[in-house]
Design a protein that fits this description.
By secondary structure, this protein is of the alpha/beta class. The protein has helices at 7-22, 38-52, 65-78, 105-108, 136-147, 184-192, 222-231, 234-249, 261-273, 288-297, 330-338; strands at residues 28-31, 58-62, 84-88, 93-94, 100-104, 120-124, 152-157, 161-162, 166-167, 176-180, 215-216, 219-220, 254-258, 278-281, 302-305, 320-324.
């Protein structure tokens, strides 16, 4: 059965439609919380535009293959005959002639010359776009503007700001926010409507001594932060606390964020030693997809990750999150916790 869009998803697509028709030549931003269904809003807008203006070409960009696949799938579910393709090395597809292309930025940036003229670029997780002209996104935009000076760039994100530079609309790319559900009041409304879940924090009674952690480029230094976790015996104590909460409350799908790859492997070892099937996923592990599929099937009760599942990972089963890493970035903190805000609409599952 085709997924029915929610009222705010329709409103978001309508706001974007209105913006591009009333404010041509400007680059709009759409702010929607993690788990609220940005991909369906994006799909409705693309479908409406291409069906109304059959000459338009769209390029949808993001940074991880899971988001590329999810955004593509959302459009095809909405419009099964959409003239859409995928360009992603991680997904094993390199379509260059589709009218609507869903691509990974790392796969496409050195091959953008193969795509010809593009009218609209939509960037999911737009807060990752750097203002540096030498960055991957900016190089792609510049190349596309050489072919089409009227190129429109649309950004979708849950966090419309960056540490150190402020609002995304204060930068050189995005002109204004045309739809905003990122406020505290909007989030509370979505929880009240049961579109999102309310997160409940637990005080573990332990705290890392941050005075021993160096700051590097505005963020906690990974090596010294990892050493602080280990020197203060935080990791094993945190594992025991997570297990206790999970047992007391019947939690059965755990997700843990680690400070380093070594920490991720160590934490997974600790969980397994205590009798709980948990695996680590990170950039050096080639069987990431297999591990995550086992987690979704319930063969693993948990996964510990290092910078792999912060964005683009959609598993509504997640009911326990452990954050064993430090960050000074409010945006990253929102992304981490957003992995647990999706409700699971399954009979008998109490949310």
């Amino acid at each position: 059965m085709k997924k029915q869009p929610r009222d705010y998803q329709i409103a978001g697509a309508d706001a974007l439609w209105s913006h591009v028709h009333t404010k041509p030549g400007t680059n709009p931003l759409v702010l929607m919380p993690t788990g609220s269904g940005k991909s369906l809003t994006m799909a409705m807008f693309i479908a409406g535009m291409v069906q109304t203006y059959p000459h338009l070409r769209f390029l949808s960009l993001t940074h991880v293959k899971e988001l590329v696949a999810g955004n593509y799938r959302e459009l095809m579910d909405l419009w099964p005959t959409a003239p859409a393709g995928v360009y992603s090395a991680g997904l094993g597809r390199k379509d260059v002639h589709a009218q609507i292309t869903f691509a990974g930025i790392d796969s496409i940036r050195r091959n953008i010359g193969r795509f010809g003229q593009i009218d609209f670029v939509i960037v999911d997780e737009a807060h990752r776009i750097s203002d540096n002209e030498k960055s991957g996104y900016q190089k792609v935009f510049a190349e596309l503007r050489n072919r089409n000076p009227h190129l429109i760039v649309i950004g979708f994100t849950a966090t419309g700001f960056r540490m150190g530079s402020g609002l995304l609309t204060d930068g050189s790319l995005f002109d204004e926010t045309c739809f905003d559900l990122s406020s505290a009041n909007a989030f509370v409304w979505m929880v009240q409507q049961r579109y999102l879940l309310r997160l409940v924090s637990k005080n573990p009674g332990i705290q890392v001594d941050e005075t021993k952690v160096r700051i590097k480029a505005g963020e906690y230094d990974e090596k010294s932060a990892s050493e602080a976790f280990r020197d203060q015996d935080i990791l094993e104590r945190a594992v025991d606390i997570m297990i206790a909460h999970a047992e007391d409350e019947g939690r059965r799908a755990w997700l843990t964020f680690a400070q380093s790859i070594d920490d991720a492997e160590l934490l997974a070892d600790m969980f397994r030693y205590k009798g709980y099937p948990v695996e680590a996923v990170h950039s050096k592990r080639g069987d990431r997809d297999e591990v995550l599929e086992k987690h979704r099937r319930g063969e693993l009760i948990g996964v510990v990750n290092k910078d792999v599942l912060t964005t683009g990972y959609d598993d509504p089963r997640i009911d326990l999150i452990g954050v064993l890493r430090l960050t000074r970035s409010p945006g990253l903190w929102v992304q981490l916790l957003g992995r647990g805000t999706r409700p699971l609409w399954t009979p008998g599952y109490d949310i």
